[in-house]
Amino acid sequence: MRLVKIAAILVLVYVGIVAAFESLIGYFQPAGGSTLVITTSDADGAHDRVVSRLEVDGRLYVAANHWPRAWYQRALANPAVSVSYDDKKGDYTAVSVSGAEHDQVNGTHPLPAVFRVLTGFPPRYFLRLDPNPNPS
Asked: Does this model's pTM top 0.90?
């Protein structure tokens, strides 16, 4: 019984660490040279989120690497998004990535093991951002 209690305490501590890490990332939204701001929209209006910018074979991608991913769900529901990075801003269409393309992006931009542990091993999803040829 003592081992069960210790295991339960360890699980609760781990869940607390993951929740704290995810909350801090969401609150501070660290931005840098390899990030972009994606603007998604829904019935409540426009929402900005800082996400990591990934490039593979000249194409632009973003990844949902965390459990909180409302921005990702909004982009799937309404794929017309705005993106800004490196003093550039443009309108894009968010396209869900799967299969070989998913594997290529994931293989080109793997996540460090420590990051995966700190985020609680969430599934990783990618969106390809295709530029709109006719900006509105």
From this structure: no
